[in-house]
Q: What sequence folds into this?
């Protein structure tokens, strides 16, 4: 496969200053039409850009200071952004359209959009806010309106408190929110546990596995002891998928138009970049490739034709010091 590169440098007249020609996406990637939103950091400050296929320069959008993460809702219209708080231990959750977000909640530990309803969002408050150690899942319906407060059982609140106090040893994340309730991922010294909670805060099941994503037919894809398995909220099924990899597999991305999905290797915590493999699957593996460095993110184009992968070199200061975008055309599998 060939790399995607900028057009050749041109020289302005009458000076000798060298500049790059405009980087139009529809020229760099023949056949691509659409808009990309790119998240990154400059001088450790979170940034968000919009890059339309027929424009040469990504548009720098305004985002809140100290941005540490963000995601679009199910419709791709609203974006939620999480920022570090300068006055407390928790984070601030902002929602809105790209470049125009308003604060929704403070002291937020983890959050997720509803998987199908673009107007709903949920978050778990930082457990250090309440002196009694309790914590709750909170929801909101947008435009910002009244939502629910769902107290977590004591044992789950204790897990959340451990994650807040010792983030290097434990983690507690809200990984999915849908009409049936919530999926929580607990990571402790004992390993991974996926916990299902209903809309009343009652635990309905847990399995010893790491969340990977939701399959096109609606079942979960989880990882257990290095193997990928389908699962319900309470039960592991057979290990249906085997990939020639000894590394951890990251979250899957499902095509917006059919039952194809992508899955890829993630960088282990070694600080050393290594080539990463990526697969596109339907009922069987359709495509496999190796990308030159660690994968940061993977997404589909809105029409399902393109799979776009962001790779980056690791940096001790900001996580990644440089990056590149790869476009995989699923019509002919060119890159």
A:
């Amino acid at each position: 496969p060939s790399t995607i590169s900028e057009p050749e440098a041109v020289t302005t007249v009458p000076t000798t200053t060298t500049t790059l020609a405009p980087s139009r996406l529809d020229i760099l990637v023949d056949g691509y039409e659409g808009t990309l939103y790119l998240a990154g950091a400059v001088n450790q400050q979170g940034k968000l850009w919009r890059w339309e296929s027929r424009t040469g320069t990504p548009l720098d959008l305004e985002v809140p200071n100290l941005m540490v993460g963000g995601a679009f809702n199910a419709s791709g219209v609203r974006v939620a952004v999480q920022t570090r708080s300068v006055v407390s231990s928790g984070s601030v959750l902002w929602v809105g359209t790209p470049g125009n977000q308003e604060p929704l909640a403070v002291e937020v530990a983890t959050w997720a959009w509803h998987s199908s309803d673009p107007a709903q969002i949920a978050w778990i408050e930082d457990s250090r806010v309440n002196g009694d150690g309790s914590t709750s899942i909170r929801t909101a319906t947008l435009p910002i309106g009244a939502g629910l407060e769902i107290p977590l059982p004591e044992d789950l609140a204790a897990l959340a408190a451990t994650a807040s106090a010792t983030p290097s040893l434990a983690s507690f994340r809200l990984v999915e929110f849908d009409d049936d309730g919530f999926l929580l991922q607990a990571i402790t010294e004992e390993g991974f546990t996926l916990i299902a909670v209903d809309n009343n805060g009652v635990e309905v099941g847990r399995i010893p596995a790491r969340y990977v994503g939701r399959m096109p037919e609606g079942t979960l894809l989880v990882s257990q002891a290095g193997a990928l398995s389908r699962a319900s909220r309470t039960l592991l099924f057979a290990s249906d998928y085997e990939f020639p990899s000894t590394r951890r597999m990251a979250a899957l991305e499902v095509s917006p138009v059919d039952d194809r999905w992508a899955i890829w290797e993630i960088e282990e915590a070694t600080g050393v970049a290594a080539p990463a493999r990526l697969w596109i699957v339907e009922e069987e593996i359709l495509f496999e490739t190796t990308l030159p460095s660690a994968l940061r993110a993977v997404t589909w184009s809105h029409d399902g034709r393109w799979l776009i992968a962001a790779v980056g070199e690791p940096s001790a200061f900001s996580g990644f010091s440089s990056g590149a975008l790869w476009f995989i055309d699923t019509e002919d599998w060119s890159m």
Remarks:
- Confidence is low (pLDDT under 50) at residues 1-22, 316-320.
